TrEMBL record:
Keywords: Cell membrane, Membrane, Transmembrane, Transmembrane helix, Transport
One GO-annotated biological process of the protein: transmembrane transport
InterPro entries: BP-dependent_transpt_permease, MetI-like, MetI-like_sf, OppC_N
Start and end residues of each ABC transmembrane type-1 domain: 97-296
Subcellular location(s) of the protein: Cell membrane
PANTHER family membership: ABC TRANSPORTER, OLIGOPEPTIDE TRANSPORT SYSTEM PERMEASE PROTEIN APPC
Transmembrane residue ranges: 37-58, 101-125, 137-155, 167-189, 228-253, 278-296
Top-level taxon in the UniProt lineage: Bacteria
Protein name: Glutathione transport system permease protein GsiD
Primary location: membrane
Pfam families in UniProt: BPD_transp_1, OppC_N
Family: Belongs to the binding-protein-dependent transport system permease family.
PROSITE patterns: ABC_TM1
């Protein structure tokens, strides 16, 4: 007696499967769970919108002088009061915030480019590792604030003559902060590249003849974006503080060109009579730096797959 073959039953249609979650969706979910980072992002977004859109909405100009309204306290017309020349403090705060944040973003980008380039080259090419890391150690050993002061004193007049007083000092401060802030990024990227280049997918790509340029751009750089993005958030805060320190010392932008550091410098002369003039720019710098640091903390946790539970 032969066994008859059993009929093949059709597979049950279970309906369409859900698409796999993307990497950035997981990052966003983890970032949202960090309350400090989410609050910092909202505060930073509010500050950026205020300083970039506020001057177009607020009726007073930051450079308008009204001697009859000088040294006023907070009023409905001037919520933050006026300075010794009758200029509206809120208008100067908004204009100064635009300059300080622009300096922070631009200097951060320059530092990230330099640090990422040196870190990738040092980690990927063994013969360049020693010279580039000793070059990094040399910059780390330099006293940064005196170096910044020397750079400003040496090149300020030349750049002011070429680009004008505002643009010249902007370029000088951005370059000075950028070329003295890339070292931590370079070390972090180098360490990640040293670990990545021994991974199986890198060795497989090298075995099929992938060039070094394609290895770096297609495989190495996308996998070191996490520490680069965290360094970016911290670099913005560091650049804002450095620019404020230079302006506070009187070596930043011209006196009639407001920044938060310049407003602090001007307000110290009237600290006993009008202490609120120091409070507003100090609060703006503190809130901006604190919110960026919280965002960096949350972004670091969100980009770490071990913390996300993978």
């Amino acid at each position: 007696m032969t066994d008859t073959p059993k009929p093949i039953t059709a597979l049950a249609d279970e309906g369409p499967t859900a698409p796999p979650r993307s990497h950035w969706r997981d990052v966003w979910d983890q970032f949202k769970s960090h309350r400090g980072a989410l609050a910092g992002g909202l505060v930073l977004l509010f500050i950026i919108l205020a300083v970039f859109l506020g001057p177009y909405i607020w009726p007073y100009d930051a450079t308008y002088i009204d001697i009859r309204s000088r040294n006023q306290g907070p009023t409905l017309a001037h919520p933050f009061g006026t300075d010794q020349l009758g200029r509206d403090t809120l208008a100067r705060m908004l204009e100064g915030g635009r300059t300080s944040i622009a300096v922070g973003l631009t200097a951060m980008l320059l530092a990230l480019v330099l640090g990422s380039l040196i870190g990738v080259l040092a980690g990927f090419f063994r013969r360049l590792d020693g010279p580039l890391m000793r070059f990094t150690d040399l910059f780390l050993s330099l006293p940064l604030l005196p170096l910044l002061l020397v750079m400003v004193l040496l090149f300020r007049e030349a750049l002011n003559g070429m680009f004008g007083p505002e643009m010249g000092i902007f370029i000088l401060i951005v370059v000075a902060i950028g070329v003295t802030s890339w070292m931590p990024t370079a070390r972090i990227v180098r360490g990640d590249v040293l670990a990545l280049k021994e991974r199986e997918f890198i060795l497989a790509a090298r075995s099929i003849g992938t060039t070094n340029f394609n290895l770096i751009t297609r495989h190495i750089l996308p996998n070191v974006m996490s520490p680069i993005m965290v360094s970016a958030t911290l670099g913005i805060a560091n650049a804002i503080i450095t620019e404020s320190a230079l302006s506070f010392l009187g070596l930043g932008f011209p006196p009639d060109f407001p920044t938060w550091g310049r407003l602090l410098n001007d307000a110290t002369q009237y600290l006993q009579d009008y202490p609120e003039r120091v409070f507003w720019p100090g609060l703006a710098i503190s809130l901006t730096v604190l919110s960026i640091n919280y965002m960096g903390d949350g972004l670091r946790d969100a980009l770490d797959p071990r913390i996300r539970g993978r």
